[in-house]
């Protein structure tokens, strides 16, 4: 009996300590992340050593490429949890501007280093590279300190890695963060492998987790076998790998009963892919909950949109310059003022305007509410008065009833509600039902061979998608969509192409030299029906637009545009490639305009 008792006790103790050991040895997502950050730090240390010992240019470029691959393993967490640091580790090599305070910060990180070492590293850049690497290492230390103290719950992990898939689609495979070296394709594969690892940690026995691991491994292998940036088939990669990976992440979340992160975001929490019809939430771009979109507000706003009494002389409405059949543009180079003179700028489309963080070509207003007031009160456009309009509405029974339905908590129409209603109508103009959308949702017959080639060019060799981000195809930066970008492209003054446009764009409102000639990056959706193009309507056709970009913008044409943000090298597109690019852009037309 004593022997049996001892054996049982021994077995129980072994089992107990074995379980305890397993509990202790089980790696958490945070621990895994800190290990990967340490590996990245080691790569940067080796990079510094190569620079200090005057290694060859090939060795330095090779180590740079290797360091970026290690960064891609942790990018999902850095970009999500500490975006302000991420900007100075792998952001564009352009000044970061704080327009409210009228100041700017010089860029740092991989893209800055890339310009110093590629296509050839020169010894005279040694001190600058060392300086950048020291700053990079300091940022790693800051990240390590941050991740050691913050809580990283499963719901945030799922949200972060889902965003990382969207980052690969919109920024990764387009070359956004590797504009010179063009190492984006192998990096995309590394980035995808990194998102399956946290799920394995959350539940290593999950069948869905195993399926996702297998799928990301195949995606990485595809990137390895097809690593040429210009010839990479992005249409195939997104539909066959990235969208299925995105769906698997959502399936894992449901399987593990992991809740959604509770916050309003431009991308809705319940979507399976970036290309779901209702993926975007217009309420993420409003001032407060009081301004949230409703169908009743949009119905009221539509009536106001077509009401000529909003103008001083009762002869012009919003629709006078934004024609529904032209995707809410007017087909003119620039519109005509109330006095008969030409306005300075082209009328932009209102479709998808609600999915931006700034309005007008010069981005002078941050939201649609202020945009409508700006136009109504502009003496050249409508010359109306919000006070007069409000007074008229208070005397109109039909309007009063519509306002009561749209704003049931108020006893009578208020001035801010007029702006909000018009803005709500504009927020209803996002269809996401083009042939491109159908293709991305699984209809392989929606696009032909030439159009698919054009899509691959748009997201690759032609570099369009590095400014017109998929799938909004405007300058609202994914995957957080918290900022809308401007660009300086050097647009010609007129069709002769002899001189640069004199319009100073954003500089008129923010006197910073980087903003001279800067204009908002508009959407390319419905572009087939919104000609002419550019802020001044200088180009009549899409073929002219593509030719302009193919030549390298203003600098490519020989203009002095020192602050041009558009790469000025020729794209070297063939005539067939230019034709395919135009064919693709025409697939972005919503059904109602086809």
Automatic annotation (TrEMBL):
Cytochrome c domain span: 296-430, 449-589
Predominant cellular place of this UniProt entry's protein: other
Record's keyword annotation contains GTP-binding: no
UniProt cross-references to InterPro entries, sorted A to Z: Cyt_c-like_dom, Cyt_c-like_dom_sf, Cytochrome_c_Peroxidase/MauG, Di-haem_cyt_c_peroxidsae, Imelysin_sf
Subcellular locations according to the entry: Cell envelope
Single GO molecular function: heme binding
Top-level taxon of the source organism: Bacteria
GO cellular component annotations of the record: cell envelope
Keyword tags: Heme, Iron, Metal-binding, Oxidoreductase, Peroxidase, Signal
Designated name of the protein: Cytochrome-c peroxidase
Keyword set includes Cytoplasm: no
Signal peptide: none
One Pfam family cited in the UniProt record for this chain: CCP_MauG
Cross-referenced PANTHER family: BLL6722 PROTEIN, CYTOCHROME C PEROXIDASE-RELATED
